[in-house]
Amino acid sequence: MTKSTTKPPNDKDQATNRLTQLSSHISPNPKPKPQEPLPADHSDVLSQLQTLRNIAQTPDPQNRGYVRQKQAGKLWVRERIDLLLDKNTFAEIGSVSGTATWQKTGHAREKPVSFVPSNNVQGAGLLRGRKVLLTADDFSIRSGHADGASAGKTVYVEKLAIALRMPVVKLVDGSSGGGSVTTIKKEGWSYLPHVASFEYVIKQLNMGIPNLGAVVGPAIGLGAARVVSCHFSVMAADIGALFNAGPKVVEGATFEEGLDFQDLGGPMMHCTNGTIDNLAANEEECYEQLRTVLSYLPNSGSDAPPTVPCVDSVEREDISLRSLIPRRQNRMYNARTVILSVVDEGSWFEIGALWGRTAIGGLARLGGRPVGIITLNCEVNGGALDAAGSQKLTRLLKLCDVMNLPVLQFLDIPGYAIGTVAERTATMRWGVELAKAYFSTTMPVFNVVTRRVYGVAGGVMLGCRDPVMQVAWPSGQWGSLPLDGGIEVGHRHELREAEKVGKKEERYKELEEEYLRLMNPVRTANAFGVEEIIDPKDTRKVCCSWAEHVYEVLMKERLADRACGKLQPSFA
């Protein structure tokens, strides 16, 4: 049997083993602690979101952009939203879009330590109870120039308006996400410019989705284009301006020095040349005009314009209209008096009062039903329609067509403007564009001939629908040419012969008297050249009856034709 060779432990080994055991008990090797789990209720993420929203929704009085905004007398972007929309109805889209700086606080944990919000606030809310989409520039951040989120937000909201058939309100203060040379430095390369949102804007315009814009600061470049493209635009007189490029860029390109915003593109420039439709005293009045215009318009061309209860009797008569039109042809009168007498009390809203002043246009109601209103201004250029007036009416006709608004016309039109100024400003070119608008639009038109209807312009405005829906006043005068000048042209030889014997003036008066007798409107009615001559006091009753029929009968067919694609009006 073999003996074991293992030596028994000596005292030294036993002491070492014992010391090791004691050491392991006294100083054990620490095990790594388990990581605290992320909260099951996602409160960490919710906290981050709330932190960013608080930063975005709280103005920084130390921020130089915010200070500049206030020193210019302008509201901060979120103050504007609160002033415009119904109280507590704004729901922001992209509320935390912007540039954030993050700090790591632990395993898979971080917190935002700074945040620069996107300089374009977008969302939805109620405007006098109507759902609308809203986009508003924040000029206090990079003067409204493009940041990392504004382009994507803008395109998204433009698409959303089409998908939801919701009106869009645009408050422009800056370039609305337009470019800046600093973008090149930031990105490290220069880019080819493109305007991604305009495809959707044009589609909205033609679909009759109301686009309403307000200039509440300097609207520059893309910002200017966005507001001018709207169905309706308004500028605040105290702070608004609009231009393709600012004074410094202009100085470098055209050497025009010392220009300020008002000189370059203030309200006296753009509210009188048709770039912007209306002028408002301040921001508050701008927003009131936006509310008013929307009240006449549907959410889209798929709907009828909204009607409201009417407390103004449709049977109301106005005897004063009998004597409004002077018997002497060269006497003028206030054409707006006719409008105010006929439409619902307090419903007249004029568009473009400061430009194209030979024409008057706007929106009103008849028996609570929205209509477009067109007339001529005999107090300017004798009522002869010039190039700017034609442009204004063309725009209004297209607006009424895409919005399903029937049009009521009070006609006193001596023709297109004549003379060297008229020829130099391409009056006939724009007059023909107006004719195209009359004959390419399809909304119902009703005519009240209050006095003159002459020439191509009169023929276009009066005869744009078949059959013609019209009545005339006893003051009506019509023909190819007005008597002033027309007699000279038509009887040139006869008058020349009379002049040889010193009887030109006498013969002229004889001819004038004869023509005035033959131009008695009753003679035209005898020949059924005009269907009915009415007592002017009954005009409101007649017009309200027409509007009622349009809304109760014709509107249904029109909406059906638009739904199936048979009618495709175009504003753009």
From TrEMBL:
A family per Pfam: Carboxyl_trans
Region (Disordered) residue spans: 1-41
Organism the protein comes from: Penicillium bovifimosum
Binding partners and assembly: The holoenzyme is a dodecamer composed of 6 PCCA/alpha subunits and 6 PCCB/beta subunits.
Ranges annotated as biased composition (Polar residues): 16-27
Residue span(s) of domain CoA carboxyltransferase C-terminal: 316-560
Top enzyme class: ligase
Protein name: Propionyl-CoA carboxylase beta chain, mitochondrial
Pathway(s) this gene product operates in, as recorded in its UniProt entry: Metabolic intermediate metabolism; propanoyl-CoA degradation; succinyl-CoA from propanoyl-CoA: step 1/3
Catalytic activity: butanoyl-CoA + hydrogencarbonate + ATP = (2S)-ethylmalonyl-CoA + ADP + phosphate + H(+); propanoyl-CoA + hydrogencarbonate + ATP = (S)-methylmalonyl-CoA + ADP + phosphate + H(+)
